[in-house]
Amino acid sequence: MALELYLDLFSQPCRSVFIFAKKNNIPFEFKKISLFEGGQHAEEFGKINMMRKVPAIRDGDFTLAESVAILLYMAEKFRTPDHWYPADLQTRARVNEYLSWQHTALRMHGSKVFWFKLLIPKALGKEVPKEKMDSALEDLEGSLKMLEEKFLQDRPFIAGEHISLADLVAIVEIMQPVGAGVDVFAERPKLVAWRDRVQAVVGKELFDEAHQSILSAVKVMESLDSSKLQGFKPRIMKLLL
Ligand SMILES: N[C@@H](CCC(=O)N[C@@H](CS)C(=O)NCC(=O)O)C(=O)O
């Protein structure tokens, strides 16, 4: 039985799992969980991931959540090329360092900008207050600066000469605010050059396939029935406090 991947490509961690599986020719069945349709709350999905988040996988009678754990599981099970998760102790530690940092930095800040720019205005029918928006953009700037100055420095990729899971996890997060219309690459030549290298290794066709949904998010949001976002309201209220 092929691996089942439960994904919605609007979600950043789902895109990293999708790209990694496809790029490494890992056979899988794509199980679409539409977050805007509330697919994560379906009874069946609860049996795959009781946290009701995507991505999640099923491999026979084994289920697993959390994108980083899923990426590592696939890398180890399918013995993907070493550069993705290098055996060398210190190179691997560089990858781990980035994977540990990103959850509460680039991921959190990029997601927040996406919610503030697109999701919240649609759900509430009004813009997020300017000071909240400015603060979210400032946090995102801080994370991007850290990516450039601490994690990339003058290396082609985060772990050195070759692409790794760290670069994949980073690029999908960066594309989230881009999907909300924020040009994070403006005046960042180093980030642009890195993105181009990552895209070149992944392959443009696969990169575009994975990002098609998020890059049409502005349009999708325009035509979305806002009542579909009611389930997100409690979290929105907390974010706006
Ligand atoms: N730490 C988790 C985050 C998973 C996550 O937050 N997924 C979001 C989409 S990006 C989700 O499923 N949200 C559904 C919800 O919160 O209702 C990972 O890396 O997999």
Automatic annotation (TrEMBL):
<dbReference type="InterPro" id="IPR040077">
    <property type="entry name" value="GST_C_Theta"/>
</dbReference>
<keyword id="KW-0963">Cytoplasm</keyword>
<dbReference type="Pfam" id="PF00043">
    <property type="entry name" value="GST_C"/>
</dbReference>
<dbReference type="GO" id="GO:0004364">
    <property type="term" value="F:glutathione transferase activity"/>
</dbReference>
<dbReference type="InterPro" id="IPR040079">
    <property type="entry name" value="Glutathione_S-Trfase"/>
</dbReference>
<comment type="subunit">
    <text>Homodimer.</text>
</comment>
<comment type="similarity">
    <text>Belongs to the GST superfamily. Theta family.</text>
</comment>
<dbReference type="InterPro" id="IPR040075">
    <property type="entry name" value="GST_N_Theta"/>
</dbReference>
<feature type="domain" description="GST C-terminal">
    <location>
        <begin position="88"/>
        <end position="220"/>
    </location>
</feature>
<dbReference type="GO" id="GO:0006749">
    <property type="term" value="P:glutathione metabolic process"/>
</dbReference>
<feature type="domain" description="GST N-terminal">
    <location>
        <begin position="1"/>
        <end position="82"/>
    </location>
</feature>
<dbReference type="InterPro" id="IPR004046">
    <property type="entry name" value="GST_C"/>
</dbReference>
<dbReference type="GO" id="GO:0005737">
    <property type="term" value="C:cytoplasm"/>
</dbReference>
<dbReference type="InterPro" id="IPR036282">
    <property type="entry name" value="Glutathione-S-Trfase_C_sf"/>
</dbReference>
<dbReference type="Pfam" id="PF13417">
    <property type="entry name" value="GST_N_3"/>
</dbReference>
<protein>
    <recommendedName>
        <fullName>glutathione transferase</fullName>
        <ecNumber>2.5.1.18</ecNumber>
    </recommendedName>
</protein>
<keyword id="KW-0808">Transferase</keyword>
<dbReference type="InterPro" id="IPR010987">
    <property type="entry name" value="Glutathione-S-Trfase_C-like"/>
</dbReference>
<dbReference type="InterPro" id="IPR004045">
    <property type="entry name" value="Glutathione_S-Trfase_N"/>
</dbReference>
<dbReference type="InterPro" id="IPR051369">
    <property type="entry name" value="GST_Theta"/>
</dbReference>
<dbReference type="InterPro" id="IPR036249">
    <property type="entry name" value="Thioredoxin-like_sf"/>
</dbReference>
